[in-house]
Design goal:
It contains 13 helices and no strands.
């Protein structure tokens, strides 16, 4: 798509929903990991989502591109599927064995900083401005304050540097995948999100089998957690992600990465009685200020309605 991003009140509602959904995913993932190895958890999550979305796509008549795609567009769809699930899930699963969870969280927040310069050169209407750059920087500082200085402490493992590079690679995959998604021609969003998940499943399942062997038989509680992860934060959220990127653009979509750690902390306190960090209010103020600066024009248009 070559038209300028269209940011509406619905766009804000969708990224708020994605922030809450992905922020709460960590709690369910923790339950699932107690009975399922990480690569098979990633594969089952993508696989469940692909099956659900394929059923919906079939019921709607397998609509995809409005005109026959070129060979390069077919290649891009395959690459986006890999960049949206297989590569980042695998890199994070491996990387988090060697780095602190705080570092992984800060790395995911940096997706916005990776998207900004790439979008400047590739997406109409997404050019960098001084206000946008300052806003993204302030938002990133807010996430770092929320997670705390322990995010950058060394774990002492021999593979810490490769682990950190793997996390950075995962963030870069999400950023590049969003840019490529925005540049695809007009297409049905359900069809696109389904094809991405199917590609992810086809790549992730053999990878999990190669690394971890045959999948273990999960207990009922673990299976329920896996199904939830496939339905809500993967199938439904992937569809919303496609809608946001295709309409409002990848820079706007990247604001979700600032929300996720905030909702993770808040939901952990509300549901699991985890302590709230003392810097929560300061971090939240910095994140909101950063979002306001980067999306000042869009906010002004929405508030005028």
């Amino acid at each position: 798509m070559t038209d300028a991003p269209r940011i509406t009140s619905a766009s804000w509602l969708m990224i708020a929903t994605l922030g809450i959904t992905w922020g709460g995913t960590f709690m369910v993932t923790e339950v699932a990991l107690s009975g399922m190895p990480p690569f098979w958890l990633a594969a089952s999550r993508v696989g469940f989502a692909a099956i659900i979305m394929a059923g919906i796509w079939a019921a709607l008549g397998f609509k995809l591109f409005k005109s026959p795609p070129s060979r390069s567009e077919k290649r891009d769809v395959f690459l986006i599927g890999a960049l949206s699930s297989t590569l980042p899930f695998s890199l994070l699963c491996w990387g988090q064995q060697h780095v602190s969870s705080g570092f992984a969280g800060v790395t995911m927040a940096s997706v916005a900083l990776v998207v900004l310069p790439i979008a400047h050169f590739t997406i109409p209407g997404e050019q960098m401005t001084l206000r946008k750059t300052i806003g993204f920087g302030i938002g990133f500082i807010g996430v770092a304050v929320l997670i705390g200085g322990q995010a950058f402490e060394q774990t002492g493992t021999a593979m810490e540097i490769p682990g950190r590079l793997a996390c950075i690679g995962a963030a870069t995959c999400y950023a590049v995948g969003s840019i490529m998604l925005r540049r695809l021609p007009a297409a049905d969003p359900i069809g696109l999100s389904t094809v991405f998940l199917l590609v992810g499943a086809v790549l992730t399942v053999p990878l999990a089998w190669t690394i971890e062997g045959p999948p273990p038989l999960p207990a009922a509680e673990i299976l329920a957690a896996m199904v939830f992860l496939g339905v809500v934060p993967t199938a439904a959220a992937n569809f919303l992600r496609v809608l946001v990127v295709r309409s409002a653009g990848p820079v706007f979509m990247s604001l979700v990465n600032y929300q996720v750690p905030v909702w993770s902390v808040i939901l952990g306190a509300l549901i699991l009685d985890e302590p709230l960090p003392g810097a929560l209010l300061m971090a939240l103020a910095l994140i909101l200020l950063g979002v306001g600066l980067t999306q000042y024009d869009a906010l002004r248009r929405v508030l005028r309605r």
